[in-house]
Amino acid sequence: MKPSSQALLGGIADTVETQVLPELEASTWTASRLRSCLALLRHLEQRVVMEGPLLYRENAELEVFFGELLEDLKDVREALPLRDELEVLRSTCTYSEAYPAVEELASVNARYLEFLDRIIIMLHENRAALGEARFEELRGRVMDRIREAKQREAPMIDAASGYSPI
Amino acid sequence: MADIERSEAALTAESVADYFSARLGSSVTVRNLRQTFPGLSRETYLVDAEVAGESRGFVLRVDPPSGGGTPTSLRHEWEVYRRLWTSPIPVAEPLWFAEGVDFAEGRAHMVRDLVAGGTTLPGLTAATAEGARLRHVAVRNHVEMLAEVHRLDWAAYGFDEFIPVPASPDDALRLEFDIWKDLWLAGRTEPHPVITEALYWLEENMPRDTPFISLVKGNNGIGEEIWRDGRIVAMSDWELASLGDGVLDLAFSQGTLALDDFGAAVRYYGECVGHEVSPRRLAWAMFWIMFKALVCLNTLFLRNYIAGADSRIASAAFGVISVRQYERQLAMSIGKDLEAALHDLAAQTTRSTYASIGATS
What we know:
The structure holds two protein chains of two kinds. Chain A has helices at about 5-20, 30-70, 80-90, 100-125, 125-130, 130-160.
């Protein structure tokens, strides 16, 4: 269907930015609400095309990342329950269709992020047992994973960063 | 009918007049009622009234329908005002607090006298010699006022009766950390692994060189305090007041201390309180304030928006966009030396939220 969702959102945002907001006094709640809408429109303009592929890729990479990290922790007793949980996660975090809806991808991503959160806590709680060098290596891998995800989503956020949310 | 710019659950001049009349036991006419801008955590209205034929101004502060935008209650802020009114710190006279009464749908609210002045200074951002002079004077005055707050004998005014007190100055930031970490874990809308890591990083690097336990104002600076003739005449917005390390206020000035020379402002603050601020302590505070803002935006604004309790679109915008911006900044900082990390982020962390949108009194 043309124009695309991205083009339509961009057109709406352009209209608000160039034809409506300039008519309003900046320091009013009416203008403020429109600025909030504009910031979100600029965000959505990118998100509508990025979110699905980004989540699909992120989920696939997280699953591999968890497997590799926990394999490297197989000698750590405290990590063993997480290995079992990962198997459960893998068997339940499946998609109902070949082309999953964004909501389904987001739901799986939330479960993976919760799992990553628990891995982080496990690493910190076992820092002394792991030894500083090994701990820092593992923490570095986790942070690299997080930074990469944040960089990938950056265009969706940066698109709105020049617009005041209030 | 007074000219009112409406928020989602705006009050009317008539309802305010009726309520104030009953409360003051005198006939009140509201000539103008205006919600101040900006300000999302709570609704603040300027009430231009006539009480028994005499002109009088009030400030009415009301919880939004979804509740406040900070973890502290409006009653907490009221208790701060009540005590400060008897202290040397300049605040507007607090008049009353109420909740659950037949006004503003029973929402918590407090009323204080209106102090003449504004939350901005005309000409403050002018690229002229006079603008530079004004910024210099305003920043120094703001520093002096913060120092006065931080040197206040808070126990003498009973602040320890309702605010948790750190066990010692060394533990001031530890108590702050524990309180806000708990708020985050209890209220976050979803797991945020980057914040989990950030909390470990901040805990590992927590300074312990707090010189003394202070009353900490919370959000401060242009857009919060009342200014007149280039000076602060009343300090306002105490909803995040706590007992702890005053350095947190330097990090929470919303760009005000950076209007002139940020480094000079921090050094001047050190002179005013008699203790130099270590760069590490300041850097930690800057990242900590980022985390606190994130807690409010996610656990209150965004959570309430998702739940349908807060329909304000700004809550969604802050909750989605600003939180992700902070997360990325933290992700890029974790693991670095605190001061180096702050140096890398300096451009973003010293910019005022309200710089370009005309904050008004």
